[in-house]
């Protein structure tokens, strides 16, 4: 049986690498209802870590890593994810803890992924 959560993680990493130059070093995806929840470690580039070491730099990197990521998915519709899940991508919520370099992305689809892939 195909591991859809692992496949989804690979698509997220490839998408970020393609559009941002770097993907997270570790991703774990969990399907919960119509959400694909991705926990990500190792998101920040060396330059971002340097900028975040300054007090006001932390907020700047956080804004870039949340708002810009959402914008990236709006401009580049994640067709591969829809094809893998056979579901329509609706929205994305993103947050990141800059100090811990831990990110969380919640992808919202039009179907119950948990039911569909965990019979």
TrEMBL record:
One Pfam family matching this protein: MpsC
Limits of the Na+-translocating membrane potential-generating system MpsC domain: 2-111
InterPro entries, alphabetized: MpsC
Name of the protein: Uncharacterized protein YbcI
Organism per entry: Siminovitchia thermophila
Source taxonomy: Bacteria, Bacillati, Bacillota, Bacilli, Bacillales
């Amino acid at each position: 049986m195909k591991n859809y959560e692992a496949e989804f993680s690979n698509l997220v990493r490839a998408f970020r690498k393609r559009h941002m130059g770097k993907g997270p070093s570790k991703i774990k995806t969990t399907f919960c209802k119509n959400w694909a929840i991705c926990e990500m470690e190792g998101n920040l580039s060396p330059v971002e870590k340097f900028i975040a070491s300054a007090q006001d730099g932390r907020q700047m990197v956080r804004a870039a890593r949340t708002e810009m990521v959402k914008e990236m998915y709006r401009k580049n519709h994640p067709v591969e994810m829809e094809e893998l899940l056979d579901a329509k991508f609706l929205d994305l919520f993103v947050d990141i803890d800059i100090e811990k370099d831990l990110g969380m992305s919640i992808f919202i689809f039009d179907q119950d992924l948990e039911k569909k892939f965990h019979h």
